[in-house]
């Protein structure tokens, strides 16, 4: 299978990575948490930390560990029993990671997410801000689905999808899915010994979906199909996906050195353009804020985030997380992005320094009105061009 993408390893260059470990690996095929494996992943992530990289670990295994703790040999079928097992097992999972990372003086944080948290833009922004804050503090977030509160209809069910959503959320350069196989084969190698190994392919190639089957172990839920679909999803924000064996010695460290291990499912679009496309096409403009000269300069020349003090007017009605345009004093758009405060709150805090936000609003969710990472810019110099198009004031 040929792909028209340069063969440079995205993982080797990546500052931010998402690693996902599946249930069968974490719990040693359901026998209970594999503390040796957990210690090895923690040591590898600690080594990547020392290189200045930021890692989010998505870990499955709560249900499998809960079953082991409760002495259940068969996976239950009812939702409430699965949820009870997850609640019991998640304790063990988090405890194991905390102990393993503490040996490297690294703190961990438990993040439990649902599909709804990532679909709702306000909750999405909160999750994103919290994850970024944890990463900047040098903490390793350990993510799992919030199994105890999700219902069947909205359940992601497998953590491959969750790993991809987290990759989109933090715009990680790559999603590394560690599993019990060497990677993706042309058919399930458990039942097809002649299956061919796929070392490189393009994420989203429909041919991959036909190759990938369901879980073979009885412990994991998604099998390869959810991994292939996760790669397609990760590619939406420019993330590459590597599917590799979690039992391969120093797999994360070697991947980060640029070694080719496992199956590489490559994204075509770079992270920045993917984000830009998402902001530009998928979200409706809800309003606009007018910036003073200093704010335009801070954004366009000094690459800073937008602060409330630089806003002189607000048009439209919007909520936190909506897309709002930033215009200069002539009404010319310089950029747009996800705003951290509603139109009502923005009107109250405009022209005011961020330090006054808690006093004016009673609390402060973010220092910035619009974070640079959540913005795309229309052109280099907003105030210079009179021909540049004006943002429509119909929202
Ligand atoms: N084309 C394929 N290539 C490799 N493995 C496959 C393929 N199709 C199905 N599988 C199965 O997917 C399993 C891995 O998925 P799963 O059990 O859900 O693991 P995890 O818990 O790591 O997510 C493998 O053990 C294998 O039996
Ligand atoms: N949230 C669930 C994960 C579900 C699951 O089995 O995921 P996976 O092993 O990645 O296919 C748990 O912790 O048990």
TrEMBL record:
The keyword Transferase applies. Coiled coil: none annotated. It catalyses: L-glutamate + ATP = L-glutamyl 5-phosphate + ADP. GO terms for molecular function: ATP binding; glutamate 5-kinase activity; RNA binding. The gene is proB. It comes from the Bacteria. Belongs to the glutamate 5-kinase family. ATP binds at residues 20, 179-180, 221-227. GO terms for biological process: L-proline biosynthetic process. Substrate binds at residues 60, 147, 159. InterPro entries: AceGlu_kinase-like_sf (IPR036393), Asp/Glu/Uridylate_kinase (IPR001048), G5K_ProB (IPR041739), Glu/AcGlu_kinase (IPR001057), Glu_5kinase (IPR011529), Glu_5kinase/COase_Synthase (IPR005715), Glutamate_5-kinase_CS (IPR019797), PUA (IPR002478). Residues 287-370 form the PUA domain. Keywords: Amino-acid biosynthesis, ATP-binding, Cytoplasm, Kinase, Nucleotide-binding, Proline biosynthesis, Transferase. Pathway: Amino-acid biosynthesis; L-proline biosynthesis; L-glutamate 5-semialdehyde from L-glutamate: step 1/2. It is found in: Cytoplasm. GO terms for cellular component: cytosol. It is an enzyme of class 2 (transferase). HAMAP family: ProB. Catalyzes the transfer of a phosphate group to glutamate to form L-glutamate 5-phosphate. The keyword Nucleotide-binding applies. Its EC number is 2.7.2.11. This is Glutamate 5-kinase. Pfam families: AA_kinase, PUA.
């Amino acid at each position: 299978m040929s792909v028209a993408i340069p063969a440079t390893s995205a993982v080797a260059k990546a500052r931010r990575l998402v690693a996902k470990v599946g249930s069968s690996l974490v719990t040693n095929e359901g026998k209970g948490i594999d503390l040796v494996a957990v210690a090895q992943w923690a040591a590898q992530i600690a080594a990547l930390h020392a290189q200045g990289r930021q890692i989010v670990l998505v870990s499955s295994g709560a249900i499998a560990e809960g079953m082991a703790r409760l002495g259940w040999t068969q996976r239950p079928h009812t939702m409430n029993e699965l949820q009870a097992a997850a609640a019991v097992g998640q304790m063990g999972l988090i405890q194991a990671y905390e102990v393993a990372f503490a040996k490297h003086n690294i703190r961990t944080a438990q993040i439990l997410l649902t599909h709804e948290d990532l679909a709702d833009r306000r909750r999405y922004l909160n999750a994103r801000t919290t994850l970024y804050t944890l990463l900047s503090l040098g903490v390793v977030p350990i993510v799992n689905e919030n199994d105890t509160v999700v219902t069947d209809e909205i359940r992601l069910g497998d953590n491959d999808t969750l790993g991809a959503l987290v990759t989109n959320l933090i715009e990680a350069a790559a999603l590394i899915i560690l599993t019990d196989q060497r990677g993706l084969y042309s058919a399930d190698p458990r039942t097809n010994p002649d299956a061919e190994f796929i070392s490189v392919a393009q994420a989203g190639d429909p041919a991959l979906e036909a190759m990938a089957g369901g879980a073979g172990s009885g412990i994991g839920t998604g099998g390869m199909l959810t991994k292939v679909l996760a790669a397609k999803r990760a590619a939406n924000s420019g993330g590459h996906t590597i599917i590799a064996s979690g039992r391969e010695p120093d797999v994360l460290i070697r991947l980060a050195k640029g070694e080719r291990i496992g199956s590489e499912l490559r994204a075509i679009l770079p992270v920045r353009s993917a984000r830009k496309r998402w902001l530009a096409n998928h979200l409706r403009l809800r309003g606009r804020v007018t910036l003073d000269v200093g704010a335009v300069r801070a954004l366009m020349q000094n690459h800073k985030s937008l602060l409330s003090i630089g806003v002189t007017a607000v048009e439209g009605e919007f909520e936190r997380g909506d897309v709002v345009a930033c215009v200069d004093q002539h009404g010319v758009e310089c950029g747009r992005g996800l705003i951290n405060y509603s139109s009502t709150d923005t009107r109250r805090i405009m022209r005011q320094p961020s330090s006054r936000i808690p006093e004016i609003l009673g609390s402060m969710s973010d220092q910035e009105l619009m974070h640079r990472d959540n913005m795309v810019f229309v052109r280099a110099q907003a105030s210079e061009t009179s021909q540049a198009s004006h943002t429509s004031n119909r929202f």
